[in-house]
Specification:
alpha/beta; Rossmann fold; 2 domains; seven-stranded parallel beta sheet; globular
């Protein structure tokens, strides 16, 4: 198949080329993000490969359809950036990577917890300046603390297992409890109870209409005073303005983010020589108890290899059977 690969970086080429070693497919790498202004770059391709911040709304899908694109393959598990109803109406199949490495994201989540708790980011900067004072670096034992996990799919379950290893008490909220979590001692409770009891709240749920701004001003007010909030799921699960207000009052003790509501204009790019025009994001960076990483939780060799392999599997299966190996249908919206 002829595939236009959007939002590519050198590491994408490396792993996709390795997975496409027999050169079954012709991959055209494009650095630009897919949106209405760049969709024409897919001309001559019968498939496009998109990443998390590419835009696949009805307008873009209609443009791709006019160019003869029959398949969209996502290099991600999430598909909230795709108008599935529009794709179905146009006859464009959509495939995704349902699982690449839950360990990668779960381990990064644990790294954010440890960094914030033990002030590793601040200690690193101090020591490099010859400051070995411990004032302001006080943390707490994770052992015996309560961790609330919102969303217990593969990543959430993996994170729960890591925190259980630290001796934490695990609470979870999910409309569909995971039997493996129940068997390991995780206790499922309602969201209000989880927020009220947890010293650490970690988000591992998909972005849907029901979870957009799940953590808003009311949820933050219901949290245990001084609690830690971690989000490695999707940015819009958290109301950023409400979080800033909670940080300013001290209601929220620590915040770790690997995702951000408006990350599409920031993440996966080198903006070190530019002025940040996103005032809300810039305000987040002023807090000493906030750590932000640029959507890198997935970024391990193992995960990138699995993403590339599954992407090729989707392309191969579509070529043989007219459908991707891991399809996303409009029913997933329900």
């Amino acid at each position: 198949m002829r595939v236009a690969v959007f939002s590519t970086r050198p590491y994408d080429r490396q792993f996709l080329d390795r997975a496409n070693r027999e050169q079954r497919h012709t991959l055209t790498y494009l650095e630009q993000r897919l949106d209405a202004s760049t969709a024409s770059s897919a001309e001559g391709s019968n498939a496009v490969c998109a990443f998390v911040n590419d835009r696949l709304d009805a307008q873009v899908l209609e443009a791709l359809h006019r160019l003869g694109v029959q398949l969209v393959v996502l290099r991600s598990a999430g598909f909230n950036h795709v108008d599935l109803a529009a794709a179905a109406g146009l006859g464009i199949a959509v495939g995704r990577v349902p699982e690449y490495s839950p360990h990668a994201v779960a381990e990064h989540t644990a790294a954010l917890v440890l960094t914030l708790n033990r002030k590793i980011h601040r200690a690193y900067a101090r020591v490099r300046e010859g400051n070995f004072a411990l004032d302001g670096l006080l943390g707490f034992d994770l052992h015996g603390r309560t961790v609330g996990v919102i969303g217990t799919g593969k990543i959430g379950a993996c994170f729960a297992g890591i925190m259980a290893g630290f001796g934490c008490r695990l609470l979870a909220f999910d409309p569909h409890p995971n039997p493996a979590c129940v068997a390991s001692g995780v206790r499922y409770v309602g969201l209000p109870e989880l927020l009220a009891q947890s010293d650490i709240v970690s988000l591992h749920c998909p972005l849907t209409p029901a979870t957009r701004h799940l953590i808003d001003a009311a949820a933050l007010a219901a949290m245990k005073p001084g609690a830690m909030l971690i989000n490695t799921s999707r940015g819009a699960v958290v109301d950023t303005r409400a979080v800033i207000a909670a940080l300013k009052t001290g209601t929220l003790g620590n915040l770790g983010l690997d995702v951000y509501e408006e990350e599409a204009d920031l993440f996966f790019r080198d903006l070190s020589g530019d002025v940040l025009h996103d005032d809300i994001f810039a305000r987040l960076l002023t807090f000493p108890n906030v750590v932000v990483t640029g959507h890198q939780a997935f970024f391990t060799e193992d995960a990138l290899a699995a993403i590339a392999s599954t992407t090729m599997d989707n392309l191969d299966t579509f070529e043989r059977e007219g459908r991707p190996a891991h399809p996303v249908s409009v029913e997933r919206l329900a």
